Amino acid sequence: MLAGIDFQTKQTETKKTVEIHDMKTTIKYTRMASMLCMLALSQAYFCFGQNSMNFSGTWLPPDKTFSVEVPVPLKESKGEYGDQDPDGYESIRSYGESLGNYSFQIVVINLRETEKKVALDEKLDGLQFLVGGDDDFDFTRKYLTIDGLSAKEIVYKKQNSKGLMIDGCDKIYVLGMTVKLRKDLDSDIANRFFTSFRRLTTSRLTTNK
């Protein structure tokens, strides 16, 4: 009788041991599955982040007067410079957004009739504050032609910032970009942003030289 009880006890203990082992195995594989799932999600997120930064979409402002390639839609910053600048511009519109290590900004300045005929250097002089602030004048400059329009490129020496001021005759377009890593100023994203500008107005005005 005691032998039978002892045998049943051993069977019960063996069964419990098997159940505990099965439970540990289940927990082990559940943890492994969770880790693999997290790894897959992190890789998917990384790939999405990389793809989103490599993707260059065409963005247009609400009035659809120009387009530019930028990896994130820009939003209008109303009231940042006021409807009328103290220098006497007719109006100023500012658009911007950040994504990852990049910050993008486009400022559109509508000129008064008296300012439209001013020489290029005089027209663009002083507008670098829209890119690098009021106090930093340590930058290189280069004159370019963008979409048939005269433009001036500035690259700051101490800031990771770059700007492009485009003379549209009746408007001035200021494209600015700030990055966390200086090498990104020469990235494909930066090059597309600064070289893809296109005016979409039906009548193209001739830029004053």
How would you describe the overall organization of this protein?
It is a single chain. This protein has 209 residues and is of the alpha+beta class. It contains five helices and ten strands; from the N terminus they run αβββββαααββββαβ. The longest helix has 53 residues. The chain starts with a helix and ends in a 10-residue tail after the last strand.
Tell me, briefly, the overall form.
globular
List unreliable stretches of 5+ residues: 16-20, 23-52, 202-209
Q: Helix content range of the residues, please?
A: 25-40%
Order of helices and strands: HEEEEEHHHEEEEHE
Taking the alpha carbons of the first and last residues, their distance comes to 114 Å
Compute the CA-based radius of gyration. 30 Å
Name the beta content range: 25-35%
- How would you characterize the largest beta sheet? 7 strands, antiparallel
Number of strand elements: 10
What structural class do the secondary elements suggest? alpha+beta
| pLDDT averaged over residues | 75
The tally of helices reads 5
Task: Summarize the helices and strands and which ones pair or pack.
Blueprint: H1 2-54, E1 57-59, E2 66-70, E3 75-76, E4 91-99, E5 102-110, H2 113-116, H3 120-124, H4 129-132, E6 139-146, E7 149-156, E8 161-167, E9 171-179, H5 188-195, E10 198-199
Antiparallel strand pairs: 1-2, 2-10, 3-4, 4-5, 5-9, 6-7, 7-8, 8-9
